[in-house]
Design a protein that fits this description.
Elements (H helix, E strand, L loop, with lengths): L4 E5 L3 H12 L3 E5 L3 H10 L14 E4 L10 E4 L6 H9 L7 E4 L12 H8 L4 E6 L4 H6 L3 E7 L2 H11 L4 E6 L2 H23 L4 H21 L4 H4 L2 H10 L6 H10 L10 H15 L5 H11 L4 H9 L7
Parallel strand pairs: 1-2, 1-4, 2-3, 4-5, 5-6, 7-8
Antiparallel strand pairs: 6-7
Helix pairs in contact: 3-4, 7-8, 7-10, 7-11, 7-12, 7-13, 12-13, 13-14
Length: 323
C-alpha cells in the first residue's frame, strides 16, 4: 500500500492544519469543505478564516465535491464527533475497499455510545478504521511548530504506513494498535478539561487544579482499563499528554468553556466537544460499573442539573478513602 494522495474531510481549523501537515510530509492533499463559499475563499486566498495569517500549502487543493475523493489512498475525517456518522455515510460510496479512514475527532457519540472508529466500521464496512489523537493545537500544527501525536489502527502495518505518510520534521506521529485506548484518552480528557476550566474560572487555586487533574486522570485510567485499553496508551501522548495540554491552556476550547462556566458566564453558541461527550461518557461508565465522579459532576453542570457550587460541594463531600 502506497499512501500518496490524502483527502481531508472538514476544512475547519484542525482539518486545515492537518492538510498542511500532510502536504509538508510530501503528500498530495485534497481538502473538502461543505460550504461552497469556503471552497471559493480557500482557493482564492489560500487562507482559512479559522486560521488567519496561515497560508495553505501549495500541495493542498480545496474542493466541495465528495466525488473528488475517489481514488485517494487515505482519508482524514476531521469533523466534530457528533457529525462524524453523517460525514462517513456520505463519503462511503466514493471510496474503494481497504482505504484507511482516520477519525480525527475526540468524542463518544451521544445515544449510541459509539467511539469514532466504531462509527466508521458501521457506516463504511469496506474501510480500514483508524484514529489520530494527542496533545495538539491546530494553530501550532498549521504553523509547523513541533507536535507529537498517536495514530492507532488495528492493522499495525497500516498504522505504521500512515505515520510514515503523515510524519514530517515538526509533526511526529507514533503508531499503535490500541485503538480503544487512544479513543478513550481523547474523549475523556475533553470532559476533564472542562472541569479544570471550571476550577480556573472559580479561582479555586493551583492546588485544586492539580487535585482535579490528578483524580480525573485516575478516572480516565479506570475507564480505560474497563474497556481494555493498554496502560502505556493511557499514560502516553493520547492520554496523559493530551490531559496536560487541554487542562492548562485557554487555547483548549474545553478548558475555555469550563472557565466560562466557572465564572458564571453563558458559553458561546458553538460548544466544545467535551460538552457533547460528557453525558455519553458517564452513561457508558455506568454501564461498565466504573465510578467517574468528576466526569459525572461536569456532565451535571452542563445539563443544568447541578450548579457549579453544588458540583464542587458534592465532590468535596465524598467519603475519605485510600488513594
Amino acid at each position: 500500500m502506497n499512501i500518496n494522495r490524502i483527502a481531508v474531510i472538514g476544512a475547519g481549523a484542525w482539518g486545515t492544519a492537518l492538510a498542511n501537515a500532510a502536504a509538508r510530509a510530501g503528500r498530495e492533499v485534497m481538502l473538502w469543505a461543505r460550504d461552497p463559499a469556503a471552497v471559493a475563499a480557500l482557493t482564492a486566498t489560500r487562507e482559512s478564516p479559522r486560521l488567519p495569517g496561515i497560508k495553505l500549502d501549495e500541495r493542498v487543493a480545496a474542493t466541495g465535491a465528495l466525488a473528488h475523493t475517489a481514488g485517494v489512498d487515505a482519508v482524514l475525517l476531521v469533523v466534530p464527533a457528533q457529525d462524524l456518522r453523517t460525514a462517513a455515510t456520505a463519503l462511503a460510496s466514493h471510496l474503494g475497499a481497504g482505504v484507511p479512514v482516520v477519525a480525527c475527532a475526540k468524542g463518544i457519540e451521544r445515544g449510541t455510545h459509539r467511539f469514532m472508529t466504531e462509527i466508521i466500521a458501521e457506516t463504511m464496512p469496506a474501510a480500514l478504521p483508524a484514529i489520530l489523537s494527542g496533545p495538539s493545537f491546530a494553530a501550532d500544527v498549521a504553523r509547523g511548530l513541533p507536535t507529537a501525536v498517536t495514530l492507532a489502527c488495528a492493522d499495525e502495518a497500516v498504522a505504521a504506513l500512515l505515520t510514515q505518510a503523515l510524519g514530517a520534521q515538526a509533526f511526529r506521529p507514533y503508531h499503535t494498535t490500541d485503538v480503544r485506548g487512544v479513543e478513550i484518552g481523547g474523549a475523556a480528557k475533553n470532559v476533564l478539561a472542562i472541569g479544570a476550566g471550571i476550577v480556573e474560572g472559580r479561582k479555586l487555586g493551583a492546588s485544586a487544579t492539580a487535585a482535579l487533574v490528578t483524580r480525573g486522570f485516575a478516572e480516565l485510567t479506570r475507564f480505560g482499563r474497563a474497556l481494555g485499553a493498554r496502560p502505556e496508551t493511557l499514560t502516553g501522548l493520547s492520554g496523559l499528554g493530551d490531559v496536560v495540554l487541554s487542562c492548562s491552556s485557554p487555547q483548549s476550547r474545553n478548558f475555555s468553556l469550563g472557565i466560562a462556566l466557572g465564572q458564571g458566564r453563558k458559553p458561546g453558541a458553538k460548544l466544545a466537544e467535551g460538552a457533547f461527550t460528557a453525558a455519553a461518557l458517564v452513561e457508558l461508565a455506568n454501564e461498565k460499573s466504573v465510578e467517574m465522579p468528576i466526569a459525572a459532576a461536569v456532565a451535571a453542570v452542563l445539563d443544568g442539573t447541578l450548579s457549579v457550587d453544588a458540583a464542587i460541594e458534592s465532590l468535596m463531600a465524598r467519603p475519605f478513602k485510600a488513594e
